Amino acid sequence: MSNLSSKAVIPFLVLAVLGAGAWAFFDAFSNVGYAPKQPVAFSHKLHSGTRKIPCLYCHSSAERSRYATVPAMNVCMNCHTVARTERPAIQQITALYQADKPVEWVRVHRVPDYVYFSHRWHVAKGIACQTCHGQVQNMDVLRQVATLKMGFCISCHRQNGASQECNTCHM
Length: 171
What we know:
The chain has helices at 2-27, 44-50, 55-58, 73-80, 88-98, 119-124, 130-133, 150-159. It is mainly α. Helix 4 (73-80) packs across helix 5. The mean pLDDT is 90.
């Protein structure tokens, strides 16, 4: 009887170990903590925290598009033609602007290609940027703080009374 019960337990243990390994493997792709080095030093803490510049001033496309996008260089230059022009990062931005070249920012937040996410819908509903992007106004270096996985999104949809139908996000 003892041999029979230990033989029955082995497949269960193997399945449990494989399940835990798969969970750990897929969870490793959450990108939480991802904070790539950017080509130009930029502090959201200074701009949106200390200076209180609203997210939508720089990321204005979030109101009318799926994408929040990085701002066009002329948005930066609205202030930096006169403000802090002696700083190396501003001089770097100014040189790129004058050469009509973009800053090659490294994307931080990304959802899988099979997910349809619209910033416009979320902004229109009054969902704060910090809900998904964290306390950006306190970050010198932008980093991903939320998993942006399905469970994260479903939890938010439940809390806010939004649709949880599959075709809401998977079109």
